[in-house]
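Can anyone check this?
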Amino acid sequence: MTETAMPVAAPPPASDLPGLAAGEEAVIALRGVSKWYGEVVAVSDLNFGIGSGVTALLGPNGAGKSTILNLISGLIAASSGVIDVLDRPVRGNIRIYRDIGLAGEQEQLYGSLTGREFVRLNAILQKTPDAERATERTIAVVDMGSAADRPLGGYSKGMRQRIKVAAALVHDPRILLLDEPLNGTDPVQRASLVALIRRLGDEGKTVVVSSHVLSEVERFARNVLVIVNGKLAAAGDFYAIRERMDERDHMVRIRCNHPRQFAAALVAEPVTTSIRFGGDGRLTAETNDVRRFSLLVPVIAQREGIRLFEVQPVDESLASVFSYLVGK
């Protein structure tokens, strides 16, 4: 008896992949990509393309964003599907690795090394011409010159984020993958990193940045891939996706010095639908108009003489919003 092979559907051409504008060439292309660990599915049947400029991977914690970046960088192999970077398979391709810079979310830094030694080590491992000069140039780019000779073990979270970006940039890669790079940064550090990300995109590099914070993404990316439960929920222009997200109620966590006074002022606003109190001066507000609410918060705080220490979307709320996108 002759065995007949089952027909296999051809993967979509790169030009037809979600995430790409009409006529845009894919620098990174995923076709039918899944990754599972035993019975746990990390990402499932991903099809999308990424061109030059800045693209955000947006989704709640645990959505699969880090897995996607590790797949694109070749650190892990896909369980099924095809991943092409610069029109070539990425896994095991050393030449392509030299075109990629990765700043992962997990911090496995050598605490005894100084920042300068850490960046120089990455330059040497990438066989960067004139490693010393490249090291100094990149440290200056992330504004870490004053702390470059201090041990990594004494760095703050924000400083570690910036030195990781320097190490990812030191060999001047065409593609930069940044996993939650703004986590733990103060407002000045955050503004500096956002400006750097935008500048690299304007220079023609392909920059992929993961984030679970909608307001962060708005500052540096127009092109967005929304990831929910390991699947692609939406792809395209940030503002078009944002309009769909804003149809749902949002939860915002606020920490201030007078939470009950602030809650009373917020409840008086029609955009506030509920308030819950937590510890340490925290409250959680639910709003049916997140844009209007985000504008009102600082205005009300100034009017009431209240100091704000934190204003942050609640991750569980984002998960609900992203699930709503899947349902659409």
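Reply from J.R.: I decoded it. Residues 187-202 form the longest helix (16 residues).
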